[in-house]
C-alpha cells in the first residue's frame, strides 16, 4: 500500500525509542515453541503517534508473504497464523499444511494490471473458459514494468469475468481462506502513471469498488476473507462507502508495504472504523497487515494496535518471514466453507 507523500518509493524508517523484546525473541523462537507458547500480551505503546480509537484495536501477530517459495510457510500452521501465497505456488503442500493446522492462506490476485502470468491471471486476462480476452484501459497506459492498466471499468469484459475467476479459484483450492487483492485501491500510485492528469478518476474508483463488491459476494458465499493492497484514503480517491473516511467497508483489511517511519499517516488509516464494516465474516474487526524493512518500523506498527498482522520482511525477500511470536486464534477461516 502506498505512502501519503510518495506511495511508490520506500522511505527510511525514522528512529524510535521502542522496546523490541518481541522482535528480539523471534530469533530464538522455533516453530514448535510458536505452537506451544501462551498468547502474548498486547505490546506496550512507546511514543508513536496518537491513534484515534475509531476501530477495534488489537494486539498484532505474525504474518508472512510467500510469493515465490513456500518454504517456511509451515511455521504458520496454527489458528491465528496468516500467509499470502503467490501466483504460481498457491497449491504447494506447505499451504495445505497451513490450512490443515488452522492457519489462514490468502491467494494472490491482481486484476488491475494485465500481467497474465499464473493460471488465474491467464484465466482472467486471456480468452478462457471465463470469457473473452480483456482490454486495456483507454489510452493503452503502461503503469510499471509488470504491464499495462486493465480496463476494469464498470461494464467491462474484466468485470464480467471476475466472478468466474474467483469461483474457479475456490473450487480448485479448498485450502484457501481468501484473497490478497494486489493494486486494488480507489486511486492509482503506479510509477509510470500520472494520476493528476488521469482522465477519468471517477471511473477508476467505481471500477475498483465494483471489484471489491464481487470479492465480497464470493467471499461471503464461501466463508472467506480478502485484503486489498491499494489505498482507500479519505478525500484522496476516497474510502467506501464514505469517501470522506479511509478504508473500504467491503474489504476485511488493507495491506501496508514497506512504509517505515510513516505511522502518523498509517496509524489512523489502519484504525479507521470503515474497514471491514460490511464483512459478515470478520464483523468489522479488520485484519490489516503491514510488512516493514526494519525492526523499528515493525515496532511502530505493532504499537499502533491498528494492524492485526505485522512482520519485518524486506522488499527483496519474497520467500516469507519467520513468526516472531506465538499465535492467537481470532476466528479467521482456514479453508473454504463446506
Features:
single chain, 338 residues, alpha/beta, TIM Barrel, 8-stranded parallel beta sheet, two-stranded antiparallel ribbon, 8 helices, 24% helix, globular, disordered N terminus, signal
Could you describe the 3D structure shown?
Keywords: Signal. Residues 1-35 form the signal peptide. Residues 38-70, 317-338 are annotated as: Disordered. Residues 38-55 have a biased composition (Low complexity). This protein is of the alpha/beta class and 338 residues long. Helix content is 24%, strand content 12%. It has a single domain (55-312), classed as TIM Barrel (Alpha-Beta Barrel). It has helices at residues 21-25, 31-36, 93-100, 119-125, 157-172, 201-222, 263-270, 295-304, and strands at 63-66, 82-85, 104-109, 142-144, 147-148, 178-182, 225-229, 253-257, 289-292, 309-312. The protein has an eight-stranded parallel beta sheet with strand order 1-2-3-6-7-8-9-10. Strand 2, helix 3 and strand 3 form a beta-alpha-beta unit. Helix 4 runs antiparallel to helix 5. The longest helix has 22 residues, at 201-222. The radius of gyration is 19 Å and the shape is globular. The relative contact order is 0.21.
